[in-house]
Design brief:
With about 500 residues, the chain is α+β, with helices and mostly antiparallel strands. Helix content is about 30%, strand content about 25%. The protein has a single domain (about 10-475), classed as 3-Layer(bba) Sandwich (FAD/NAD(P)-binding domain), CATH 3.50.50.60. The strands form three sheets. Strands 4, 5, 6, 12, 13, 14, 15, 16, 17 and 18 form a ten-stranded mixed β-sheet that branches. Strands 1, 2, 8, 9, 10, 11, 19 and 20 form an eight-stranded mixed β-sheet that branches. A two-stranded antiparallel sheet has the order 3-7. Helix 1 runs parallel beside helix 5 (about 185-200), helix 1 (about 20-30) packs across helix 12 (about 440-450) and helix 2 (about 80-100) packs across helix 14. The longest helix has 22 residues, at about 80-100. The chain is globular and about 70 Å long. The relative contact order is 0.18. Its cofactor is FAD.
Length: about 500
């Protein structure tokens, strides 16, 4: 490790203590054990912002139940390609975690992952027709071959009784189910990974905020770091910088001055959830159930009634209820949005605003919802819901990517995007869903992009970490079965 001087020097600096930095740090520690690495996190613990389980409600994203990943075409057919891609990515993540469990990096898998069926549930003829078309498009794919589908209310009741009990409106119902889904506590997982990094020589510093960065004359990056406890600042130097600071990544990418960050903006969306306080109700539901998004709603606002396992305790939540805040982080500043506006991203942002008036209208209506209106919305899923059994909690911030588009001038992107310099010396992650569940493949892609001269020498180790590395499981059912059986066993999901 480098000596702690006024300007400590590292091979790699990770900015942010969430699941992305923890994943990248863990990979690099295995691939290059002699490299010096530092991680700076503004908060006093890892995984407390976007990776916190109550700030990251869509845990275990695998495109098994999230309908927005399988859009319907104009002719009524459904395109499964995006769902296949996301599910492939989640299998990579599962293999990465399995490797860490098998090698003692992660301890009891139940502390961060638990088996949980994933369901899609809709009502009304149009939505039921869509869900049937989705099932017909996805179930022939090897990745989704065990998916079930029904329009029988009693079968649905057997899967998730809260959806059916008290429902008397006579509407056509439909549900799809994947019994082999999971629920993930990314806060617990992130903290376990950062503890491992600390134990293996990574200089993990909490209460340290990176306030700016610039390129030195020798090509290294100079990061301005403020220590909360000491009340002082210092400069850390690095050959490579990863900015995994959630909503805070945009400001630092802009500060870097790299041309690849020009034209990017951020659109913050906040959220709230109803969390059940009645153990009797909690124990009647064992599934992650997603429905259809409201007209004008962003994909991240798809309503869902979810069983959760947080810090070893079973919970139940419903939401989200979207809101608007100009903060880019839950712990950020209301000036985050206005201070992110630059001459190079102003036009794309204005075009996004012009083309997404429906989203703005939706957010205004969501903010105006009373608590009773929120309970009424939940009753579409859970007809017998009683407001006294639920508490309203504030979730985290999501910053959706806005970027230049040659046709529209600017587009709003509901996904994640890695932005990196041409020389691979710095990279940052922008965006949200599917986010944490695809951390491993996203970071593997970052390694390929930023370390092209190294990736060939790393390939054997990467195949040890992720046996399917470089291959598609959906194209190889035999490999899919082998990988699934191995990860289920390692993660105790059998």
């Amino acid at each position: 490790m480098p000596q702690q001087t006024d300007s400590p020097m590292y091979d790699v600096v990770l900015v942010g203590g969430g699941i992305m930095s923890a994943t990248l740090g863990t990979l690099l520690a295995e691939l290059e054990p002699t490299w010096s690495i530092a991680l700076y996190e503004n908060l006093n613990q890892a995984g407390q912002e976007s990776s916190d389980p109550w700030n990251n409600a869509g845990t275990g994203h695998a495109a098994l139940c999230e309908l927005n990943y399988a859009p319907q075409n104009a002719d009524g057919t459904v395109d499964p390609s995006k769902a296949i891609g996301i599910n492939e990515q989640y299998h990579v993540t599962r293999q990465f975690w399995s490797h860490l469990v098998n090698n003692g990096v992660l301890q009891d898998p139940k502390t961060f992952i638990n088996p949980l069926p994933h369901m899609s549930f809709v009502w009304g003829d149009d939505h039921a027709d869509y869900l049937k078309a989705r099932y017909e498009a996805m179930s022939p794919q090897p990745l989704f071959q065990t998916m079930e589908h029904t329009e029988d209310p009693e079968t649905i009741r057997g899967w998730a009784p809260l959806l059916i009990d008290g429902r008397h409106d006579g509407k056509r119902l439909a549900a799809s189910r994947f019994a082999g889904g999971t629920d993930v506590d990314f806060g617990s997982l992130t903290r376990q990974l950062t503890t491992h990094l600390t134990d293996h020589g990574v200089d993990v510093k909490f209460g340290h905020k990176v306030t700016g960065l610039s390129r030195g004359s020798d090509g290294r990056w100079d990061l301005s770091v403020k220590s909360k406890a000491a009340g002082s600042s210092f400069t850390a130097r690095a050959r490579f910088v990863f900015i995994g600071a959630g909503g805070g990544a945009l400001h630092l990418l802009q500060a870097s001055g790299i041309s690849e960050a020009k034209g990017f903006g951020g659109f913050p969306v906040s959220g709230q959830f109803l969390r059940c306080t009645n153990e009797e109700i909690i124990n009647q539901h064992h599934a992650k159930v997603y429905g259809q998004a409201s007209v004008g709603a962003p994909p991240m606002s798809v309503p869902h009634l979810d069983t959760r396992f947080v810090d070893g305790r079973r919970s139940l939540m419903f939401g989200p209820y979207a809101g608007f805040s100009t903060n880019f982080l839950k712990t950020g500043s209301f000036l985050d949005l206005p201070l992110s506006v630059r001459t190079h991203n102003l036009l794309p942002m204005l075009n996004v605003a012009k083309d997404n008036l429906g989203l703005v209208k939706y957010l205004v209506s969501e903010v105006a919802k009373t608590r009773e209106k929120k309970i009424d919305t939940m009753r579409d899923f859970f007809p017998k819901a009683e407001g006294s059994d639920w508490e309203l909690i504030t979730a985290g911030q999501r910053v959706q990517v806005m970027k230049k588009d040659p046709k529209k001038g600017g587009i709003l992107q509901f996904g994640t995007e890695v932005v990196s310099a041409a020389d691979g010396s710095i990279a940052g992650l922008l965006g949200a869903s599917p986010g944490a569940s695809t951390a491993a493949p996203i970071m593997l892609g970052l390694l390929e992009r930023c370390f092209p001269a190294k990736i060939g020498g790393w390939e054997a180790k990467l195949r040890e970490i992720v046996p399917s590395y470089g291959r598609k499981l959906n194209d190889d059912p035999t490999l899919l079965d082998e990988v699934t059986q191995a990860t289920d066993a390692a993660l105790q999901l059998n």
